[in-house]
UniProtKB/TrEMBL annotation:
<keyword id="KW-0808">Transferase</keyword>
<feature type="domain" description="Palmitoyltransferase DHHC">
    <location>
        <begin position="201"/>
        <end position="328"/>
    </location>
</feature>
<protein>
    <recommendedName>
        <fullName>S-acyltransferase</fullName>
        <ecNumber>2.3.1.225</ecNumber>
    </recommendedName>
</protein>
<keyword id="KW-0472">Membrane</keyword>
<feature type="region of interest" description="Disordered">
    <location>
        <begin position="1"/>
        <end position="36"/>
    </location>
</feature>
<feature type="transmembrane region" description="Helical">
    <location>
        <begin position="248"/>
        <end position="273"/>
    </location>
</feature>
<feature type="compositionally biased region" description="Low complexity">
    <location>
        <begin position="21"/>
        <end position="36"/>
    </location>
</feature>
<comment type="similarity">
    <text>Belongs to the DHHC palmitoyltransferase family.</text>
</comment>
<dbReference type="GO" id="GO:0006612">
    <property type="term" value="P:protein targeting to membrane"/>
</dbReference>
<dbReference type="GO" id="GO:0019706">
    <property type="term" value="F:protein-cysteine S-palmitoyltransferase activity"/>
</dbReference>
<dbReference type="InterPro" id="IPR001594">
    <property type="entry name" value="Palmitoyltrfase_DHHC"/>
</dbReference>
<dbReference type="GO" id="GO:0016020">
    <property type="term" value="C:membrane"/>
</dbReference>
<feature type="transmembrane region" description="Helical">
    <location>
        <begin position="133"/>
        <end position="155"/>
    </location>
</feature>
<feature type="transmembrane region" description="Helical">
    <location>
        <begin position="293"/>
        <end position="318"/>
    </location>
</feature>
<dbReference type="GO" id="GO:0005783">
    <property type="term" value="C:endoplasmic reticulum"/>
</dbReference>
<dbReference type="Pfam" id="PF01529">
    <property type="entry name" value="DHHC"/>
</dbReference>
<keyword id="KW-0812">Transmembrane</keyword>
Amino acid sequence: METEHHSTDQEQGQIQERHAQAQGSNGSSSSSSATSCNPIRRAAEYMAGPGPREACGRLGSLMPSCLRGSPSGPPPPTATRVHQVWPGRNVFFLDGRVICGPDPRGLILTAMATLLAEWIFLCYVVDPSSAHPALVSSASLVLLATVTASFAMAATRDPGIIPRNNNNPAELSLSSVEDGTTGSATRAPPSRFLVVNGVEMQLKFCRTCKIHRPPRSHHCAVCDNCVDKFDQHCPWISQCVGLRNYRFYLLLMCSALAFYAFILTFSVTRISVKLDAAAEVFSYLVTALPETFALAALSFMAVCVLACLLASHAFLVAKNETSHERYKGRYRSSPNPYDKGVVGNIKECLFDKLPPPRVDFRAAAAAEAELYFGSSVQPYQPAPVATTTTAS
């Protein structure tokens, strides 16, 4: 009897255990069904993962396909342009279309002086009671437009920047002799010579640009560029003056001279009309016509400076020289191989077609150019037939 009672207790314990397991399975199934019926709870449990990255991935899988974005990821970034990695000090605008110098103070001062002179002329010099005030004002505005256009072309144009050498840096190491650099600081790079119209011209090596410069070029210390047919770095336009903007620089000087001479003429006429012979001249000008007197003084100084500068450049154009060559005395010991006579020199300077820019600043920069020199254009290479190399 005791054995039977013991087995009965065991059977009852097994039945109770099975019943508890059945209740647990029913509870889990009911909870899962409740979760499936509640979308908010389902999303919360679905996002509960080992880390935020997995949660974000699960949240993205819950979003509609139209909101998930492209499966290939974000679009590739825009290619780097040459002007964005150019090692010179120029400032670029409009995606490399406009090139300015590094220091805008001279450019701003010149523009403000021109606009202020025109404003004073229209407000205080032009007499409404004169014979043709509208014609005088229109003529001054036309001259101002000419000055502004030539000023913009000279100050924002590529002056003839020569591309830097962007070959393999191993070829440009300081131990390389062929490109002009040596391991020793005391050894000079080998010189190259170019024969132009029977005159031997030396091609100097630029350590900054790693090139042998063309004969008439020079490395500008302000803009940090080698410029073809370098004339000067003009602080009044904050830009180098070279092969591709020299004629616009001459046009700027001519138009500015005509503009300030026009203003000076009418300012002096206005002063002479208003001048009282009985009063002291200086005190009357300062007290009665201060604006006209200041404008006349500014115009007189501008006319004197521009006239002397324009006369100097007219002489250089007739000789086919640059200001830098004249200052260095480049042709004192040898004839000028570029001299074609007065008529030929003027035609070459003012009417010949300008060459295209050597550097396309809007082009995509190569990887090695971005890393080392910032240019994807090959450097200047002189003609091999007319070139000889000697060790200096």
